[in-house]
From TrEMBL, chains A, B:
Keyword Ion transport applies: no
Role this protein plays: Catalyzes the ATP-dependent phosphorylation of thiamine-monophosphate (TMP) to form thiamine-pyrophosphate (TPP), the active form of vitamin B1.
Residue positions binding Mg(2+) 3: D18, D63, D197
PurM-like C-terminal domain span: 140-237
Organism expressing this protein natively: Nocardioides marinquilinus
Binding-site list for Mg(2+) 1: T33, D34, D111
Identification of the protein by name: Thiamine-monophosphate kinase
Keyword Membrane applies: no
Any single Pfam family the record assigns to this protein: AIRS_C
Binding residues for substrate: H41, E250, W297
SUPFAM superfamilies, per the entry: PurM C-terminal domain-like, PurM N-terminal domain-like
E.C. numbers: 2.7.4.16
Length: 300, 300
């Protein structure tokens, strides 16, 4: 299977030995790890192996993106039942490799094991060209901005959960997210003060950022782009599409804070502002009020 | 749980953000990943959580050892059933942290997920002070040497498999291996030409080394140390204890080749020689002949 994984020039020793060896010229490594478990994070009847491979890579690559970095290397552990079709594992590896190729990262090692449930464990390594952007740097008075699709995966999941297969573009967005891979480094260079990738849900992740920064965040419901497919699914399911945007995760959009609207890079959309935390640190409001819509449109 | 993990000075950003950030002064990173699955690699009724934590760390730290390196950072993914006792997870984390502390490595990140089976995914990062020692560097005429306990875990497993609990020292060796963590770097500096950690079984791993080097290896059955507990378990189970040594894995001893006996560091024991591969590359013999004893004393 390792033959599927092309090795970048920074890979001094690739897969097949006790360990891989990577050249690191930057003086640091940004590293993150994520699990993807069948039945909790994906269903084999809802997503092709190729898509699960893309998603497993994307959710990890996105963590480096959210630090303002670029990924260069990944390892992958695949635990699977003995009767898992070889074609599933190969398609998974192909999808994984294809997603990594989008950012020029190499799969440098892995492990296979037997288990009852397909479980994918990925570790990703990368580098920043400037100081990493943490969750903890937001200050009152700054603007909150978003880049990338948001709510699309949640829309696709809502569609699948009701037995439908369209709008197809949302189902595809759920199966295979398209994180804005260049946007993290661009934001870092533009002076983003804090950043997080949206994977648990926009409100939840805004809450993580606010809590770690000791601030409150107010989002403006009217500021979000409600793309046509989200409007369509909202109408079909009798759901306010803003709920999909606010509660949705798994698109791996980025949420960041900037000193002011003028420093927000192209492609980002200002969606709220940072407020003084006081005894409300970590609180996220929508249009100045507590949000009482559904928060959970993640996983399934 | 992250409060259990002390962070070394090289950790610029520890657990809790989208990714950790490590200072890397060496210009390279040695990286490996391993899975540990309940039912395949451990049983909760045969090993305490603390021991499983030690073992999960040890098997990964050993991979860096086998490159001639020293580990500095690890990430850990834990997928577990919802009814897993919190105390199990905490004890596991304590054991994992304690094992990492033996070599001064930090647990810098992790992920938790729900699954039916306890599955542990670990990635370890480290560095070498010299060129990494690969599996592929052995040449005919060199000597083969071993360091660390070998066969003890297999002995412990054989004991447990028959419903016994003693010799206790072997059961403990199975539950909590004690890899010779300093020996890899010492061997590299002494001029080891190839190296591997014994995890699949001594004969199997000697075969990996021989295959990757394009050589054959002949081991001398009489050269191995048969410690007293191995003799005892051999007598009790009516098994030649050399079988436990040759077939055993999971002690995470190191097997390496050196140019000659004079270059073998203290603590290592010469146990065989490298022979011309010819059309026999990858073949491992014992006392010049094919070995027909049991090869599998690994896992259970």
């Amino acid at each position: 299977m390792t033959a599927l994984f092309e090795q970048g020039e920074h890979v001094l020793v690739g897969p097949g030995d006790d360990a891989a060896v990577l050249r690191v010229r930057t003086g640091h490594v940004v590293v993150s790890t994520d699990l993807l478990v069948e039945g909790a994070h994906f269903r084999r009847d809802w997503a092709e192996a190729l898509d699960v491979g893309h998603r497993a890579a994307a959710q990890n690559l996105s963590d480096i993106n959210a630090m303002g970095g670029r990924a260069h290397s990944l390892t992958i552990g695949l635990a699977a039942p003995g009767d898992l079709p070889v074609s599933w594992a190969l398609d998974f590896a192909r999808g994984f490799a294809a997603e990594c190729a989008l950012v020029g990262a190499s799969v440098v090692g892995g492990d296979l094991a037997r288990s009852d449930q397909v479980t994918v464990a990925v570790t990703v390594m990368g580098a920043c060209v400037q100081a990493p952007v943490l969750r903890s740097g937001a200050s009152p008075g700054e603007v909150v901005a978003l880049v990338g699709r948001q709510g699309w995966a949640a829309g696709g999941l809502a569609v699948l959960g009701r037995g439908f297969r369209s709008p197809r573009v949302l189902v595809e967005a759920y199966r295979r997210p398209e994180p804005p891979y260049e946007a993290g480094a661009v934001a870092a260079q533009a002076g983003a003060t804090s950043m997080i990738d949206v994977s648990d849900g926009l409100l939840a992740d805004a809450g993580h950022l606010a809590a770690d920064s000791g601030v409150a965040i107010d989002l403006r419901a009217g500021a979000f782009e409600i793309a046509e497919p989200l409007q369509a699914v909202g109408a079909a399911l009798n759901v306010d599409p803003v709920q999909l945007v606010l509660g949705g995760g798994e698109d791996h959009s980025l949420l960041a804070t900037f000193p002011d609207a003028g420093s927000v890079p192209e492609g980002w959309r200002v969606v709220g502002e940072v407020r003084d935390g006081g005894d409300q640190a970590g609180v996220v409001t929508v249009d100045g009020a507590a949000y009482d819509g559904p928060r959970g449109w993640t996983h399934f």
